[in-house]
């Protein structure tokens, strides 16, 4: 699979020396998930997924609870969920997910980030067909064989189980996300190094040093946009 998920998470988190920025992104996403369904993670899978991901980024419980209470309180604040697709250097592919209360502003900012950093916007569907929506869950303290045994005992299907650095990463269909977590919780594993549903590239691209530097500048510009929640791509940046 090529990606080191814990390293990617740490890199994203380290960019935000002001943690209020990452807290704000999660607060918005939790609010929207709670607003669109039941404000109870046990009854709302979308809310449960974003809360689990927030925990892996050490988002405080007070931030999570505040966003849920805001949704319960009947706030009329509303956000549109948007997905942009585009290309970076050497045909690299990028997907940008955003939550915004101003569609025109966000579209302009995303387009500007692409145009100013060697990329260009594509039409809907021009990139996403090369990605698979995937549940990614990571734990520490077990081998891949031990993880496989736990999941087999729980009758959970997965795509792949890989040992990456000191963690074991499980790749599965999105609808298996909760079942995988429950299987681990039954054997006393409640802490996850990564827990999210992401867009995983079917094939990864390796760029030259110069092209990779330009690509990383583009990704940073996109991730710096306030309304952008997630940026997915097909470039191997592990090296």
Automatic annotation (TrEMBL):
Compartmental location: Cytoplasm
Domain of life: Bacteria
InterPro entries tied to this protein: Integrase-like_N (IPR017856), TACO1_YebC-like_2nd/3rd_dom (IPR048300), TACO1_YebC_N (IPR049083), Transcrip_reg_TACO1-like (IPR002876), Transcrip_reg_TACO1-like_dom3 (IPR026564), Transcrip_reg_TACO1_YeeN (IPR026562), YebC-like (IPR029072)
Pfam families attached to this UniProt entry: TACO1_YebC_N (PF20772), Transcrip_reg (PF01709)
A biological process term (GO) from this entry: regulation of DNA-templated transcription
Record-annotated TACO1/YebC-like N-terminal domain positions: 3-74
Keyword vocabulary terms for this entry: Cytoplasm, DNA-binding, Transcription, Transcription regulation
GO cellular component terms, A-Z: cytosol
Primary location group: cytoplasm
Entry's Gene Ontology molecular function annotations: DNA binding
UniProt keyword annotation of Signal present: no
TACO1/YebC-like second and third domain sequence ranges: 79-235
Signal peptide extent: none
Sequence similarity: Belongs to the TACO1 family. YeeN subfamily.
Protein name: Probable transcriptional regulatory protein U473_05375
């Amino acid at each position: 699979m090529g990606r080191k998920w814990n390293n990617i998470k740490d890199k994203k988190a380290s960019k935000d020396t002001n943690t209020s920025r990452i807290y704000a992104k999660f607060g918005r996403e939790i609010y929207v998930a709670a607003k669109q369904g039941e404000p109870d993670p046990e009854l709302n899978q979308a809310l449960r997924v974003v809360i689990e991901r927030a925990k892996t980024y050490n988002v405080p419980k007070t931030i999570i609870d505040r966003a849920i209470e805001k949704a319960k309180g009947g706030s009329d604040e509303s956000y549109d969920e948007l997905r942009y697709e585009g290309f970076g250097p050497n045909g690299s592919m990028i997907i940008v997910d955003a939550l915004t209360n101003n569609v025109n502003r966000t579209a302009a900012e995303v387009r500007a980030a692409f145009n100013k950093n060697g990329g260009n916007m594509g039409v809907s569907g021009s990139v996403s067909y090369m990605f698979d929506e995937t549940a990614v869950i990571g734990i520490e303290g077990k081998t891949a064989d031990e993880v496989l045994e736990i999941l087999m005992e729980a009758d959970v299907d997965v795509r792949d189980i890989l040992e990456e650095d000191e963690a074991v990463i499980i790749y599965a269909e999105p609808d298996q996300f909760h079942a995988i977590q429950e299987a681990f919780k039954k054997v006393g594993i409640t802490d996850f190094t990564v827990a999210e549903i992401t867009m995983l590239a079917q094939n990864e691209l390796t760029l030259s040093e110069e092209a990779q530097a330009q690509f990383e500048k583009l990704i940073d510009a996109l991730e710096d946009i306030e309304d952008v929640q997630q940026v997915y791509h097909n470039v191997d940046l592990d090296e």
